[in-house]
Structures are given as structure tokens and as C-alpha cells.
Amino acid sequence: SAGLYDEARRGWLYPMDVNPAGQNAFKKDAWNKYRIECIGSSIRTWLNGIPCTNLVDNLVSSGFIALQVHSIGKNDTPGKQIRWRNIRIQTSNVKPSKADNIFVVNMIPNDLSAQEKKEGFSLLWDGKTTNGWIGAYKDTFPAKGWNIANGELSVDKAAGGESTNGGDIVTVKEYGPFELKFDFKLTEGANSGVKYFVTLSEGNKGSAIGMEYQILDDLRHPDAKLGKDGNRTLGSLYDLIASKKIANSTRPIGEWNRGFIRVNKNNKIEYFLNGIKVTEFTRGTPEFNALVAASKYKDWKGFGMAPKGHILLQDHGDRVSFRSIKIKEL
Predict the structure, then answer these.
(1) Predicted confidence band at 190 (pLDDT cuts at 50, 70, 90)?
(2) pLDDT of residue 84
(3) What confidence category does residue 78 fall into, taking pLDDT thresholds of 50, 70 and 90?
(4) 241: buried, middle or exposed (CB in 10 Å: 19+, 13-18, 0-12)?
């Protein structure tokens, strides 16, 4: 309750998985007090005084206020009611409420809101240049295989091979615990990934070694059916842990998806897809080590346990685009 959903257009913009405190604000069988604040591109909600959502979005700037009658299933129990009271609105002399500290969903490409800056986020890619990025196992950014246009950083379509065209790109800087936001857009049958704790110490062929947030067209790419129990599908910890498959959590091919990786100081790692938590694990535990031992990474000593490493965008020979790449060091 108090999450933000874009009806008949973009679906969930701010589901409450990214704000656990807000998830618990609703009171069953009691009156709940909602507050919605829309000022410019800022949309925020509160429930019973608890901050629930903080969205930055400039798609529309005005519209009707509506009270919804949702679909009623044939097996629903008769007599259910939703009641409203004390509906009030202010449209003049409106001033923003004081800043909170909840997760910000920013739908404006390559933009940092004031609160994101306050929380410590910075742009990992500036939306225009190759600054801060080089090719994996290279001293410079790849001369081919990647292109920048219209605020998008894209892998060029090649033969679908792993790092055989331009090759992977990595951050110049290494990172330990962090929060990473990124938008990605797939083409039909495409494969890519975001890797982290990439040390570039292995000197291997193909894609550089690191833990991976899998980016894949599950319906059309054969990798979705390989591995074990779906652990190579979209949002999975690649080849180790399958992501949860939750209805309406994925945008159609050709539309932008929002990825989020949180690497906590206690080694707990969480993956989110469009605001919904799809994968969770703790590196270094016996369970994690057993998964590594049964994976394609079994021969890489200490896989996933580096204290810090580069962040990597994968070239798998398919057209995939990125934007709004932001990081906060913890």
C-alpha cells in the first residue's frame, strides 16, 4: 500500500520492496491516512506518517484525481468495501516536505535528484563520454563494439559471442560495498550482464571473471534453459542462484528495465528488478561456497570473495543498452 503504479502504461514504478519500513505502514481493518505530494517532477507518498515512495518522473505534469474500483473476481467474497473520507487538496503555495532518507526511483535518464546526491549517489557513467571506463584487460576504452548516442551506452550487435567484438568494459576505479542503480534495454534474443568484484587478476579468455547480475531475453536466448534450475535467467546471480519469477516484474523487450544491486558490508547481496527483490544471498557462507563448487567458476580460487573490484558491463555480442548508471559507496 502507498506504492506507485502507472496504470495501463509502465506498470510498477515504485513497489515497496525497496522500502521495507513503508511496507509495514498499512493498518488492517482501521482508517489509514494517506498523503500524496506532487511538485514538478517529484512525486512522494506517505502512509500513516511514514515515508513510502520518492519518485522523480517527468512523463506528465497534470491530470485528474481518481478513486479506483479495481477488478472484482468471480470468486471474490461479496460485501468487501473500500471507504474514503477527509479528501482534501492544496494547489497553491505548495512547498516540498523536508527530505527523507528512503530509496529514490528516478525515471529521468542520467539524472541525479537532490536527494540522491544527499544520499551519496553519483553518476558512474556521465551519459556522454567514456570517462571512467576502459576495456577489460585493456588500457583504453574499446575502439569498436560500443557506442554512445542519445544518452545511451550500447553494445553493438555482433555474432553473439562472449567478448569477441569490442569486449567487456570496466570502471577504472574499484569498489567494495556499494549500491548500484542502472537501466538496461534488451533487444530480441540478447544476452549481457553487470559484473562486480572483478579483479582482472585471472588473465582469462572471454568475459572477465566476476559475480554477475544476469541480463537476458529469457524467452528467446538458449542460455535461459542452461545451467541449473533457471540460474542463468534474467536477474539471477549467474550460474549460481536463480532469480524469483514475479508477475509484472519485467518490462517487454525494447523497453527500459531498472536494475539495482546492493552489496552490504556484511556480505549480504540483494538484486532488484524494477523495484522488486528477485535474488538474495550472502557470499562466503557454506551455502554460497557449495554453489560455487558446483558452478562453472569452481576452478577460480576465491571466486566472489575479493574485498573490492571493478564493475563491468558485458559484451556478449548482442545489442543491449545502458543508461542512468549510479553508485553509492557504503
Answers:
(1) very high
(2) 95
(3) confident
(4) buried
Question: Per DSSP, which regions of the chain are E strands?
Answer: 4-6, 11-14, 34-39, 42-47, 50-56, 105-106, 122-123, 133-135, 146-149, 152-155, 169-171, 178-186, 191-198, 211-216, 256-263, 268-273, 276-282, 310-313, 320-329
CATH class belonging to 118-329: mainly beta
Q: For residue 8, what are the contacts with CB-CB under 8 A and spacing of at least 6? A: none
Cell numbers for 310, please give them. Answer: 571493478
Q: Does residue 73 carry a pLDDT above 90? A: no
- Are 3 and 52 in contact, with CB atoms under 8 Å apart? yes
Q: Contact at 8 Å (CB) between 224 and 238?
A: no
Which range among 20-24, 157-161, 195-199 shows the weakest confidence by mean pLDDT?
A: 157-161
User: In this structure, are residues 96 and 153 in contact, taking their beta carbons and an 8 Å threshold?
Assistant: no
Q: What residues does each domain of the chain span?
A: 1-108, 118-329
Q: What is the pLDDT of residue 95?
A: 95
CATH of the structural domain 1-108, one choice from 3.20.20.480, 2.40.50.140, 3.30.70.270, 2.60.120.560: 2.60.120.560
Angle at CA 320, nearest 5°, toward 315 and 321? 115
List of long-range contacts for 36-40, beta carbons under 8 Å, 24+ apart: 37/94, 37/96, 37/97, 39/94, 39/95, 39/96
Is there a contact between 170 and 310 (Cβ–Cβ < 8 Å)?
Answer: yes
* Residues counted in the chain: 330
Neighbouring C-beta atoms of residue 238, cutoff 10 Å: 25
